[in-house]
Design brief:
Helix content is 17%, strand content 34%. By secondary structure, the protein is α+β, with helices and mostly antiparallel strands.
Amino acid sequence: MNQTDKLTRIRTMNPTITLVKTFAPVATLATVGALYLQPLIGQQSSLTEMMTVDNTPPIREGALGGYAKIVEQVAPTVVSIAATKTMPQAASMDPRLHRFFGLPSTPPPQAPQQQGTGSGVILTENGYVVTNNHVIADADEILVSLSGNKTPYPAEIVGVDPDSDLAVLKIEATGLPTIKAADSSVLKVGDTVLALGSPFGLSETVTTGIVSALGRNAVSIASYEDFIQTDASINPGNSGGALVDNKGRLIGINTAILSRSGGNVGIGFAIPVNMVMNVADQLIQNGEMKRGFLGVLLRELTPDLAEAFQVPTNKGVLIDQVYPDTPAAEAGLRDGDVLLHVDGTATNDVRATRLFVSNRRPGSKLAIKLQRGEDTMELDVTIGELPGKDLASNGSTSRPRSNNLAPRPAELLEGVIVEDLNDGYRASLKLDSEVTGIVVTEVTPNTPAAEKGLQSGDLITEIGRQRVASVEEAKEAYAAVDGDLLLLRVWREGVGRFVAIKAS
């Protein structure tokens, strides 16, 4: 992504990411040629006598039929949302100072308010509405306006899920029009789509395009991403609106655009409806989103790691670490296992695998196929619930300190100086008593180890899949390695990972 590109949603979160709802909608007058033709048609003139006027409706059937029927069906299910937030108020002068200086007393100023607009989609006849979390985040008042109804409904927040950027609202109404949901897993690049919403506060706006890409999971908008990319025009205020297919079925919730100017340039992102339905259902049922949890740290298989673990490149993801007392540990998964399939789905991407597991309900079963050494295995895992805090413990990345008066440094491989782990290093690195290994005290820049991310303060616990507890054991394990690819198990800040280094 170029530095000048922006992900747009609406309010600025950092220098490159902006959220897509609208503040202070501005209407612009446009002079349209057709407006000048209108009075002409009703008058006798040489122009109208020479022209043929066809008063029949346009073609609405077949390949040239347009989308009017779809819009008539879907538009009533898409709503406009106005969210008002009270801003911090500047401190006013103490009334006693007014009296002391003889100043006239003034009423305290009203707290300023900020209003943003977005869109939403009616899910049920009794008033459940889905939208983006960023549309209503921190709002003090939320109003929902229905198609053709000038009186907005006050809305209550049923639940929010910032990790997917989704939220569910409830309005007190019955007999509302609802949208039909499709299965977003059957979408293909090139499928026709329509985007409906309220860009810049202009309700019931419809644009069309195609599915440009699927499975976009590195957009960095939310923690869990699987976006549909589309070139249908999406602008500020479209957030939370509907992306529908050519049958008028909901396939996604419009969320963000990639833009240099803040306006549409043909790259928009929508959350697929399968994820939307999963999150919305849990928010309605539980008021919160409960995600599936394995308890592993996954890593992409680089060519060096694939060679070290003797698996084809881009075939699976590596388990860097299995956390203790987790579903993965209880099922028998180990550090260094390579996940090949989960429930029959190939696991070639860490983000996609993480999302797949997180979408499973806690307590459900997951069939895992993995490679361990030269063996292929299948295991069943009972999914747990994702805990609310990070499992990794805090540590220090500063240079380790030893209390030994006479440390014995040794160069294990090119540019890597190591020492035995002693009580001083253990305290400095905040290591538990059961952790063993050798401490990296220095890494020379521009060496193969440095290029692979090895750094001072790392703890090497394995060499060539052999555990090492001293420099001498490390040298013996190194000498036993066959070939020039050295596989290390490195411990940093409470997290273990594998590092494959070409040794000279």
